[in-house]
Structures are given as structure tokens and as C-alpha cells.
Amino acid sequence: MFLYGDTVSILRSAGKRDKFGDKTEKDFHHDVHQVGIDWEASEELKPGATEVDNRQLIVSDVILYVPYGSDILASDHVELPDGLTYKVNGRPIPRKQNPLTGGWTNTTVVKLTRIEG
Length: 117
What we know:
By secondary structure, this protein is mainly β. The chain is built from no helices and 7 strands. It has a 6-stranded antiparallel beta barrel. The protein is globular and about 50 Å long.
């Protein structure tokens, strides 16, 4: 994949649930190596849910290019090399062909989102 790519950690729920039925803890599951990271996919400031709390949300989107067949699920969280944890946004998309060049690339595209604020 990317010979000098980064290593990311996949965090998967251990199955424990809180009193509302939501899965709570994310445990280390495995590492994925040789990952390409598009850090500048987008970062937006959004107004808060209500005008009373006077806060802004920062929504950061990152795109990962992982080796084809990597074990990443839509319910996973990913810890990037900067130490921050992002949620997988949607289903990972396997690609065997580069849409720009038509050449073969065995990659899976994973969109990540982090919301702060």
C-alpha cells in the first residue's frame, strides 16, 4: 500500500452496554499498517444545538486509505498517530481500481469523523 504510511489502531466495542443500552467501552482490537491519511479532508465550525449554551462544534473529517481487506467495521473507532480518536463514518469502501488513473490499487477508503465542543 503506502510504503512509508502511518499505523493506526482500531478500537472495537467489547459488547458492554450502559443503562440506556448504548455500547460504552472501546477496547484495542488491532493495528493497521501502511495507511495513507488525508488530514485535510475538512474541518468546520458549526453553531451549537441551541443558542442558550453559546458553543460551537468543531467537526473534523479525515479520510484513510488502508490496504484492501483490512478489518475495519462501520461501528469501529480509529486512533490516529496524533493520539485522537475518530469514529468511522459509514461503511468502508473497497476499491480495486483508481478512479483517476484507471490503474489497479488495492485500497479501502474509510471516512472518519470527530466532533468536539
